[in-house]
């Protein structure tokens, strides 16, 4: 659990003096179950993002047991609240079975 990196497909489009398009796949460090900030990893793996002032960013998590949410982080309790709600929605109990290295809900 948490031993394999999770691939994140990142693409961005911006306008200004012309239309620019960047895309790449980056690997996020393995993490245990829970909510984690990945902003720094995305910026490090996608340095072109610093060139974009106005545009659209698309993030796609390519792993069945991972997801991306966008939350404000000014108030640290937001992360705790989201994690609490996700744990209530998908508890780590025996009703979840493993198939290969992925988890599937029954």
UniProtKB/TrEMBL annotation:
Transmembrane segments: none annotated. This is UPF0047 protein YjbQ. It comes from Schistocephalus solidus. Belongs to the UPF0047 family. It comes from the Eukaryota. Pfam families: YjbQ. InterPro entries: UPF0047_YjbQ-like (IPR001602), YjbQ-like_sf (IPR035917).
